[in-house]
Design brief:
single chain, mainly alpha, two-stranded antiparallel sheet, 2 helices, 72% helix
Length: 74
């Protein structure tokens, strides 16, 4: 009985899989936090580029009620 208990305690075959799973979960969590934090910055950068392209082409750029941009030419 003690021999079997000692063998069970010394067995580390599942520990590696658990460690890899924890590392993958941590990387995923960092990715979600980073993308959430950078989302508004990236969105405003795209909006600035769209406005610059619109005005550069001779149009008028405006934001709609839903927050999306619109370029009109007269």
């Amino acid at each position: 009985m003690f021999k079997m208990f000692r063998a069970f305690v010394k067995d580390e075959s599942g520990a590696t899989a658990i460690e890899y799973g924890l590392i993958a979960a941590l990387i995923a969590l960092v990715g979600v936090v980073a993308f959430t934090a950078l989302g508004d910055t990236i969105s405003s950068s795209f909006s600035e580029v769209a406005e610059a392209l619109c005005t550069g082409a001779g149009g008028t750029y405006s934001l709609t009620a839903t927050g999306t941009g619109s370029c009109t030419f007269s």
